[in-house]
Amino acid sequence: MTTVKTNPTTLEGMADRVGRAPGRWGWVAAAxxxxxxxxxxxxxxxxxxxxxxxxxxLTVILFAASYMAFFRLIRVVALRGQLSSWHRFGYLGxxxxxxxxxxxxxxxxxxxxxxxxxxxxxxxxxxxxxxAFVAVLLGGxxxxxxxxxxxxxxxxxxxxxxxxxxxVYGMRRAIQRSIELDATRKDLxxxxxxxxxxxxxxDLHDILGHSLTVITVKAxxxxxxxxxxxxRAATEVADVESLARAALADVRAAVAGYRELSLAGELVSAxxxxxxxxxxxELPTTVDEVPEDNRELFAWVVREGVTNxxxxxxxxxxxxxxxxxxxxxxxxxKGPTPGGGASGHGLVGLRERxxxxxxxxxxxxxxxxxxxxxxxxxx
Length: 379
Hints:
Elements: H1 10-19, H2 24-31, H3 38-47, H4 50-80, H5 85-106, H6 112-124, H7 127-147, H8 156-228, H9 230-256, H10 263-276, E1 280-282, H11 292-313, E2 317-322, E3 326-331, H12 345-356, E4 359-365, E5 371-377
Parallel strand pairs: 1-2
Antiparallel strand pairs: 2-3, 3-5, 4-5
GO molecular function: kinase activity
InterPro entries: HATPase_C_sf (IPR036890), HATPase_dom (IPR003594), Sensor_HK_TwoCompSys (IPR050482), Sig_transdc_His_kin_sub3_dim/P (IPR011712)
Protein name: Sensor histidine kinase
């Protein structure tokens, strides 16, 4: 089962990139934009005196501190999780109040603060709400320049608010795309791991299913022969030991990721397994006509087909036919049954291997009765 994870928000994504342990260069990059607050500072210095000037400088400095605190806020998000809506609007409200407090001493230049507020709002709020928030700030700036006595309507503040919000929107979209890309990469990595687990499980099933079936048949035969033919029983027991060691070697090779099947070797193993199960084997004596590219797939067909014959068929005869592009495993047993061997785990894995090789798997009744498993390459 694949676990579905919730994607992080834009603010959380920015926190991951900036906020967990922001370096000094991150603070410097943010502080560069405070250059534009030089306008209200200059206005306070030119038009105010004494305690009024001090208060003017103080309000501008407090506003700058609220802007820089946004990056501290990102750190909080990174360490504690997503902020509530009340925290977001409360923070923007604080910045707006400080901006308004700048107006008595800085005059029209205090509207510069709206550029910072709009930028922070686009990053803090959900996109539709952020757009509406910027529209309100833009409208407020345009209206105030027209109705407040002594203020000039040069359109520069509204344009600056629009450009600032647009720039942050572009950064927001870039962060969102980065978040989506990271999430996609994680999903693909999880799917790759899951697929590899499934492949490994299929390989172990195919290896151990065949080997343990033959071992069981030979062990039963040895048990029957102990009293009647001790020498034959000893031979069968020796074969069981050899098969167990071979199965262990196959498992180790599968774990190491280097296991490849040999078609000739599988035919030899198939003959031994069928003989142990007292099933007459009619197998090809050479595989020379089979192209090298098809041999491993055909080896899997032999292993899966013979395992099913020994386990399920109740057959007396098994025939394997091989050509350059096709392999058939036929028996004279009871044939396919609904929900039986035709849809087992081994055949599912065999179909997947055949699909990867551009081959087709055919399962059904053999001519004259029994079970037929065939794989054709290049169909």
